Amino acid sequence: MSEETLYWQALNKAMDTELEADESVFTLGEDVGLVGGSYRATQGLMAKYGEWRVRDTPISEGSFTGLGVGAALVGMRPVVEIMTVNFMLLALDSIINAAAKIPFMSGGQFRMPLVIRVPGGIAKQLGAQHSQRLEHTIMNVPGLRIAVPSTPQDAYWQLRQAIASDEPIILLEHELLYFSKGPLDILAEAPPMHRAANRRPGRDVTIISYSRHALLSAAAAEELAKDGIEAEVIDLRSLKPIDWDTCAASVEKTHHLLIVEEDCRFAGAGAEIAATLGERCFGALDAPATRLAGLDMSTPFNGTLEAASIPQVADIVAAARKLCRPAKTPVAAAAE
Amino acid sequence: MERDVLHRLLSDMLLSRAFEERAAEEYGKGNIVGFLHLYPGEEAVGAGVLNAAAPSDYVVSGYREHAHALMRGTPAREVMAELFGRADGVSGGMGGSMHIFDAERRFMGGYAIVGESYPIAIGIAYAIAMRRLPEAVICFFGDGAVNQGTFHESLNMAALWRLPVLFVCENNHYAIGTEIHRHSAVTEVYKRAAAYNIPAEKVDGMDVSRVYDATRRALDLIRRGGGPQFIECETYRFRGHSMADPGSYRPVAEVKAQMARDPITTAIGEAAIRLPTQAELAEAGADTIARLTARMVEAGHLAEVEMEGLRKAADAVVEDAVQFALHSAEPTMAAAWAHMTCNRRDEVLI
User: Fold this and answer.
1) How far does CA A294 lie from the centroid of its chain?
2) Do the chains contact at A98 and B120, CB–CB below 8 Å?
3) Where in chain A is the domain with CATH 3.40.50.970?
4) To the nearest whole angstrom, how far is the Cα of A69 from the nearest Cα of chain B?
C-alpha cells in the first residue's frame, strides 16, 4: 500500500531499514548525526543507532570519503553523504582513483560496497559554487554506477539497492526534490536499479531525461498533449549504466528524440545519449536527436538569469513542438 | 634481541635487497616496464615494522611497496609476476608494481597517488574500532606525503575517534627530487603529529632493531586502546626515486655517506659473532663504527657461515621468482573484463 511521502523521508526510511537490518551498514558525513543531515535524510538515526553508525565528520571530504573506501575494503557497507556535489570535487581522488579502481587493479580481490549520496543540481540562488551538476565528470569513470532518483519511490528503492550492492554507487539527489511528495510503497517489488521508467506513453516524440528534469519533462508532455502532440517521457533513473533498450524502443516508435538535461550541454550526459541513440536508431529517426540542456555558463546568482540558464517547462514544450512540427520552408508552404 | 627475530629481520632485508636489485636488472632487460620504485637503503623500516606486526593487522602502503609485500609474506613469485604484468601476479597483472594487493595477508594496497592511503587506512581502522577487534592498521608513507591535505584530515579523524592506526613515515629526505628542507617548513616530521595529540617518536630507520622495538611499543599501545601512534623512521634510498630517475639532484658524497649506513650491514654487524676487519670498518664509515663495535660486543648470535646461507637462500628465492614470472602467461582481455565486474554477483542491473 502506498503512502504520500516526501523524498527525504523516503531516503530516511531506506537508511533506517538498512541500518536496522545489517550491522555492517553505517553512514557518515558532515552534520548527518546530531543535526540529521542538511536535507534531513538521516534525521533521528544517530539517536537510534549511536554515533559509530551515524557519524558526524569534520569538514574533510577527501578523507571521510576515503574512510568509506577503506571500511568497504574490509566488509563494511558505508553510506557516505557529501553535503553537496560541489564538495565532491574534493573527494574525487577517493572516488575515482580508489573506489572505482581497487576491485579491478587488485585483480578482483576486494569488494567495494560503498554508497555515496550527493545532493546537487541548481536549487534557488545558491551561487555558482553551489549550483553545479557534475554527472558528466563521474559518468566517464569506469567502475562507478550512478543512480538519479526523481521520485520518493525511486529514492527509497535505489538507496536500498545501492547499499545491498557490492559495487561503488553514487546517488545523485536533486536539492529541489527533497521536499517533493509522491507515493511510496515499501512492499512493492523494486525494478532493477538501473532500468529506465516510462513515465508517460506517447507516439509523437520521445523525451529522455533524468532527475528533476524528468518531472519537468512530464509536465511539458501534458502541455504538449493539449496541442495534440503525444510525448513519451523516459526517466532514465540511472546514468551509468543507461537502459538503452528502453530508450531505443521508444525512439523506434516515435521517430523523434529530445534529450533534456539540467547539466551543461557540452560533453554532458545528453551528448552521450544523443551519440549512442543516433548510432543505434539512425534509421528510425525522422530528425537528428536534439539536446536541450543547461548553458555552458557558470550559474548566475540573479534569479532570472539562473532560471534562464537551464531548461524550463516552456523550453521543453517549444523544443518538442519544433522537433515534431518543423517550421515550413517558404517553398513547402507555396506547394501547399 | 632474540635469535629467531634477528634471523627473520635479516632474511627479510636480504630478500628485499636481492629482489629489488634483480628487479632493476629485469627492468634493464625490458621484462619490467613502466614505473618501478626500488627499496634498497630503506629495508630496515619495512622489516622492523612488519616483523613487529601481527598477521591480523592490516598494511596500507604507497608505490614503493613490493618490498613491504614481500616482508608481509606475499610469495616472491607472485610479486615478481605482478611486476612483469603476468596473469599469476598477485594482482592478476592488472595492478603492476605500484598496485600490489594481497587480501589473504591483509596487504591492502599499493597506492600510487601520494597521500591517498591515509583515508583508506583510517577507514579500515574505523571498521576495526566498530567491531572492537584487537587489530591495527599500519600506514606507510614518505616524507613527501605529509604535505597533502589528507595527512592532516586523516590524522585528525584518527585521533578524534582513537582509531587503531600506526602511521609510519619513511623519511628518506626527498619528495622525488625536492629535499625535505625545501618542501617542509617543519623538517622533523614526527613533530607534526603533536598537532593532533598523536604520540610520536623518531627512530633511526637505518637500524632495524630500533624500528622493530619502536613498532612493538606502538602497536602494544594501540592494542591497549591508546589510539593512533606515529613513528618517523629516518632512512635513505640508495637509488633514484624510480628507474626513470638517476637521482642526480643528490650530492655523491651524501649518497656515499648514507650507503655507509647500510641497514643490512648494521643488522649483520649486530648479529655477527666475528669482529669486523679494519677494511670493513673503514668502508662502513666513521659514524657506524661505534655502533657496529658496541653491538657486536653485547650481542652475537650469528656465524658468518649462516650469513652466507641466508644470502644464498634469498638469491635462490629471487631466481625462482624470476623464472616463475617469465613463464607465467599474459593475462587475457576476458580476465580484465571479469575484474571490472567482479563484484556484480547475481545483480540484474537493467
Assistant:
1) 15
2) yes
3) 3-184
4) 6
Dihedral sign computed on CA atoms, order A72, B111, B205, B231: negative
Name every residue whose Cβ is closer than 8 Å to that of residue B206 and which is 6 or more positions away in sequence. B44, B234, B235, B236, B261, B262, B263, B266
Q: Region of A330 please: left (phi>0), alpha (psi -120 to 50) or beta.
A: alpha
With 70 as the cut, is the pLDDT of residue B296 above it?
no
Contact between residue A67 and residue B155 where contact means Cβ atoms under 8 Å apart: no
Measured CA to CA, the distance from residue A149 to residue A169 in angstroms comes to 13
Domain ranges of chain B: 3-326
First to last CA, chain A: 56
Q: Write the DSSP string, A191-233.
A: PPTT--EEEE--SSEEEEE-THHHHHHHHHHHHHHHTT--EEE
- The reply to whether A61 belongs to the active site is yes
- The interface predicted TM-score of the complex, written ipTM, equals 0.95
A3-184 CATH pick, 3.30.930.10, 3.50.50.60, 1.20.120.420, 3.40.50.970: 3.40.50.970
Superfamily of domain B3-326: Thiamin diphosphate (ThDP)-binding fold, Pyr/PP domains (3.40.50.970)
pLDDT in tens, A240-280: 999 999 999 999 999 999 999 999 999 999 999 999 999 99
Instruction: Name the nearest CA neighbour of A255 among A229, A231, A279, A285.
Output: A285
Percent of chain B with pLDDT over 90: 76
* Top-tier CATH class for A197-324: alpha beta
Average pLDDT over residues B41-54: 96
Task: Count other C-beta atoms under 10 Å from residue B29's C-beta.
Answer: 8
**Among B63, B73, B53, B79, which residue's Cα sits nearest to residue B11?**
B73
Instruction: Decide if A130 is catalytic.
Output: yes
Question: A69: nearest CA in chain B?
Answer: B120
Chain B residues whose CB is inside 8 A of the A192 CB are: 348-350
Residues forming CATH 3.40.50.920 domain(s) in chain A: 197-324
